[in-house]
Design a protein that fits this description.
Elements lengths: L3 H12 L9 H11 L6 E3 L5 E5 L7 E7 L4 E7 L5 E6 L11 E5 L4 E7 L8 H4 L9 E3 L5 H6 L7 E4 L4 E2 L4 E4 L2 H19 L5 E7 L7 H10 L3 E9 L20 E5 L7 H13 L5 E4 L6 H5 L8 E9 L7 E4 H16 L10
Parallel strand pairs: 3-12, 3-13, 13-16, 14-15
Antiparallel strand pairs: 1-2, 2-12, 4-5, 4-9, 6-7, 6-9, 7-8, 10-11, 11-17, 14-16
C-alpha cells in the first residue's frame, strides 16, 4: 500500500499544474510520466484522454477506472483598451468567490500572474453593493496598461488560466489547494495502478484519465466506448458541507469519515448490487466509509453506466472535500488513503461482470 507521504506528494504536484477543461496538457504530461513507471501500455486519444492498462492475471474481463484530469478555470473572451481582460469560466465557479482571487494565465512565452477585479465598494450604491457581482462585471488585471501590451504578452481571445494558489498542509491530516477536483482522483488512480503493477488483480484494469468532465463529462463518453469495460469504478471528489451553519442532514459528506460510496446523484442511480459490493468490501477490510446521496451534481459515472447496449455496472468512490471549484479546497489525506484502500480492495475482489447481474 502506498505511503501517506507519497500520496500527499503526488496530490501536491498534480494540483498545482494548469489544466482547465479542454486544456489539460500540463496535467496529462505529468500523468503519462507517472503511469509509464507502472506500465508500457499508455495511449492518448483525440479528445486528450489518457489510457494506462495493467493486465490481469487470469480473467479476460476488463475494469475501467476513471478519474478526470481537468479542473475549473478561465478563458479570455475580450481584451480592453486599457489592458484589462474579460473572461468566461471553463466549468462552474461560484461568482461570489472570485473578486480578489489571484489567477495565472498562460501567455505566449511565460505564465502571467494577476488578480480578478471589480468596481471598488467605495464607489457603488447601497443597492448594488448588496448584490452578488455577475461575471460580466468582473475582469482580470495582469498589470498591462494597454490592450496592445496585453496582446504582446500573448493574452488574447482563447488564452486560458486557473487559480494561482499553492498547495498547503493544514492542521492534522488536512491539506488545501486548487484542482483537488479531480486531481485527488487522479492521485488515487496512480496509487492503485502502482499497487496492481506489483501484484496483479484477476481482471485487467484500464485507468482512464479523462478530459472535459467539467464541461459535461465529454471525455468519459469517449473513454467508455474506447475501453468497452465489463465493470467500472469512477474516482471523484465530493462536496463536504460539514461547515458552520449547515444542518447535519445537509452535509452530504464529512471530512475525516472516509470515502463516500455514491447511492444516487443527478446523473445516476447506482446499481444496488454494486453499492452493496463496495459497502461490503469496505466493511470486510475495516475501511471507514460513508454512504452518500446527492441529488445535485453529476460525474463521469453518469456517462459510463449508460454505455453500450446493456449498460455498465459502475461504482463511484469519492474523497470528501470542502470548498470545491475554488482556489482553496480542503481534504484529508487520511480519507484519500482510505479511498486508495477501498478502490484496490474492490478491484481485487472483482472476477467478472456476472458478480453484478441483477
Amino acid at each position: 500500500m502506498v505511503h501517506l507521504d507519497k500520496l500527499t506528494e503526488t496530490l501536491s504536484k498534480l494540483s498545482q499544474l494548469c489544466g482547465p477543461a479542454g486544456y489539460e496538457g500540463e496535467a496529462r504530461k505529468a500523468i503519462i510520466e507517472e503511469a509509464r513507471k507502472c506500465t508500457d501500455d499508455v495511449e492518448v486519444d483525440a479528445i486528450g484522454n489518457v489510457y494506462a492498462t495493467v493486465r490481469g492475471s487470469s480473467s479476460q474481463s476488463t475494469i475501467l477506472v476513471d478519474a478526470h484530469m481537468d479542473e475549473v478555470g478561465f478563458i479570455i473572451k475580450y481584451v480592453e483598451d486599457r489592458g484589462f481582460l474579460r473572461f468566461e469560466t471553463l466549468g462552474t465557479i461560484d461568482s461570489r468567490i472570485l473578486p480578489g482571487n489571484r489567477i495565472i494565465l498562460k501567455g505566449t512565452e511565460k505564465n502571467l500572474h494577476g488578480t480578478i477585479g471589480s468596481k471598488p465598494p467605495h464607489i457603488i450604491s447601497g443597492e448594488e453593493a448588496s448584490k452578488v457581482i455577475p461575471f460580466y462585471d468582473l475582469f482580470m488585471d495582469v498589470g498591462a496598461v494597454t490592450g496592445d501590451e496585453a496582446r504582446s504578452l500573448g493574452l488574447s481571445v482563447g488564452t486560458i488560466g486557473t487559480f494561482d494558489e499553492p498547495f498547503r498542509e493544514l492542521a492534522g491530516s488536512l491539506v488545501m489547494g486548487k484542482a483537488f477536483d479531480d486531481r485527488a482522483g487522479c492521485t488515487v488512480a496512480l496509487a492503485v495502478m502502482e499497487a496492481l503493477s506489483r501484484e496483479k488483480a484477476k481482471m485487467s484494469v484500464v485507468f482512464a484519465f479523462t478530459a472535459q468532465e467539467e464541461l459535461g463529462m465529454r471525455g468519459a463518453e469517449i473513454a467508455v466506448r474506447h475501453v468497452n469495460p465489463d465493470i467500472a469504478i469512477a474516482l471523484e471528489t465530493t462536496v463536504a458541507a460539514d461547515v458552520p451553519d449547515a444542518r447535519p442532514r445537509d452535509w452530504i459528506s464529512s471530512i475525516g469519515l472516509g470515502p463516500t460510496i455514491r447511492v444516487m446523484d443527478s446523473s445516476m442511480v447506482a446499481q444496488h448490487v454494486m453499492v452493496d459490493y463496495l459497502r461490503d468490501t469496505a466493511e470486510k477490510n475495516s475501511i471507514p466509509h460513508q454512504m452518500q446521496l446527492a441529488k445535485a451534481g453529476g460525474t463521469d459515472a453518469g456517462k459510463i453506466h449508460l454505455s453500450g447496449t446493456s449498460g455498465v455496472a459502475t461504482g463511484l468512490i469519492s474523497t470528501p472535500c470542502r470548498y470545491l471549484h475554488g482556489p482553496s479546497s480542503v481534504l484529508s489525506t487520511k480519507d484519500l488513503h482510505n479511498v486508495v484502500r477501498l478502490t484496490e480492495a474492490s478491484i481485487r475482489g472483482m472476477e467478472s461482470k456476472e458478480q453484478f447481474r441483477l
